Amino acid sequence: MDQRGIHGEWASRWIFILAATGSAVGLGNIWKFPYMTGENGGGAFVLVYLICIALIGIPVMMAEVLIGRRGRMSPINSMRYVTKEAGLPRGWIGIGWMGVVAGLMIMAFYSVVAGWALRYVWTTGTGSLTGMEAAAIGEQFSALLADPKQLFLWHSVFALMTATVVALGVERGLGSAAKLMMPLLFASLIILVIYGMFHGDFASGFHFLFDFEVKRLTWDSVLKALGHAFFTLSLGMGAIMAYGAYMPANASIGKTIITVGILDTVVALTAGLAIFPLVFANPPLQPSAGPGLLFVSLPIAFSSMPFGDIFGTIFFVLITLAAWTSSVSLIEPGVAWMVESKKFRRAPATFLLTGISWLLGITCVLSFNALAEFKPWFLLFKTPFDFLDFMTSQLMLPLGGLFIAVFVGWFMNKQIVERELNAEGHALFDAWHFVVKFISPVLVGLVMVLTLIDSF
Ligand code: PFF
Predict the structure, then answer these.
(1) Distance from C-alpha of 447 to C-alpha of 456, rounded to nearest angstrom
(2) Domains in the chain, ordered, with CATH?
(3) Which terminus of the chain has fewer Cβ atoms in its 10 Å neighbourhood, N or C?
(4) pLDDT in tens, 277-286
(5) Model confidence over 389-427: pLDDT tens digits?
(6) Which residue's alpha carbon is nearest to atom 10 within ligand 1?
(7) Residue 1: per-residue pLDDT
């Protein structure tokens, strides 16, 4: 059942780390984490998020990668393999299916936001922000959202960029892109934090991120922190399972995934430390500005700062790169499945699936203008953009993660799991197994149930 040859394999453990970190680090870290932290009261939200990463995210991520490497195929077929091996009903394969669908749903809105970043690379790069009034910059973002043609254009450019890399395959596409872009991304983030230290209100930014005010937490914000832990680690939808399938057999899953989890968390916190000092140094700006936080407050900060155009451009290039190495992992699970099971060649499969997401993305483009008031009951009274974000981050990914934890903790042969993790006799194996079997599923289930009760 060894299908390594079909899709290829990462050239080394480090390429896997870069690719998986590339998938994890994305708009989630740089766009979503700061604005969610801002909307949910700062430090307390950050603390819950960190607990979720440590107690649920990283252990479940190891479980997901291990299924991928055991099955060595797309999430759907890897699930098929391990389900059969464990003698379980075929329904478990649904985890793989839900992942493929969730990937296409995320890509639909992800590509629209990445399109905003592309547009701002253009705006800052041409120097048009310099000396602009704060109000005018705010209006510029609103004008962008109100213009479906522009949004559509940049959404399409980003979808095409994504498809190009996926079509090139695991080694030449995904692997090389990660190798090239991830170091650049780390470097530009460091430059920006240093910039923020000198030109922003670093102390206020720091306190906002790390002072806990427990009373600001609601069950809803706990669920958001949990959902975000899944989103930011690319967890619960097979992306990381697919990447695990291309992992060399002798690489240690435990160490590798802990590295990825830590890198992802460090990038999110660093992005917060780059952004909030700038927000607080420019008093009219509010941390709770919502999804526009990054796209309004930062250009305002950059417009009035020395070399703001240059740093602004670096920042938006950084966001685009981060989004790019993530978006490819949203399409990959479905593509791998079509190549394996439907005898597609990689390129047509890629363009077909990216095309479906791109079409769905048009509803997200329109969510900011023509369809802004379209919040029907079947979208749970949300715009298509908000609905897709809600369904995936807060429902499908946590559920996917819950099922993966239950599957590995309760139904997979413990010896196989131990061997696949290269953890024979390792002192921490039993602790990890306990967490995946009891702690993670109970916590995810509890948070979901309590939020449901809370919302009535
Ligand atoms: N982890 C990515 C981010 O933080 O931007 C988003 C993401 C990518 C989610 C891939 C899920 C996924 F499968």
Answers:
(1) 15
(2) 13-455 (1.10.4160)
(3) C
(4) 888 887 777 8
(5) 999 998 999 999 999 999 999 999 999 999 989 888 888
(6) 234
(7) 42
Could you report the per-residue pLDDT of 259-315, keeping only the tens digit for each? 999 999 999 999 999 889 888 887 777 888 888 888 887 788 788 778 888 888 988
User: Can you read off the two tokens belonging to residue 152?
Assistant: 């559509």
- Tell me, using a 6 A CB cutoff, whether residue 349 lines ligand 1: no
Q: Is the distance from the beta carbon of residue 53 to the nearest atom of ligand 1 less than 6 Å?
A: no
* Those residues with Cβ within 8 angstroms of residue 178's Cβ, 6 or more apart along the chain or in another chain: 15, 18, 19, 21, 22, 325
pTM of the model: 0.93
Q: How many Cα atoms are found within 13 Å in the side-chain-facing hemisphere of 412?
A: 30
Q: Is the CB of 232 under 6 A from ligand 1?
A: yes
CB of 162 closer than 6 A to ligand 1?
Answer: no
Report CA(285)–ligand 1 centroid distance (Å): 28
The answer, yes or no, to whether any atom of ligand 1 lies below 6 A from the CB of 111, is: no
Mean pLDDT of 168-175: 78
| Count of C-beta atoms within a 10 Å radius of residue 216 | 13
Q: Is 24 in the pocket of ligand 1 (CB under 6 A)?
A: yes
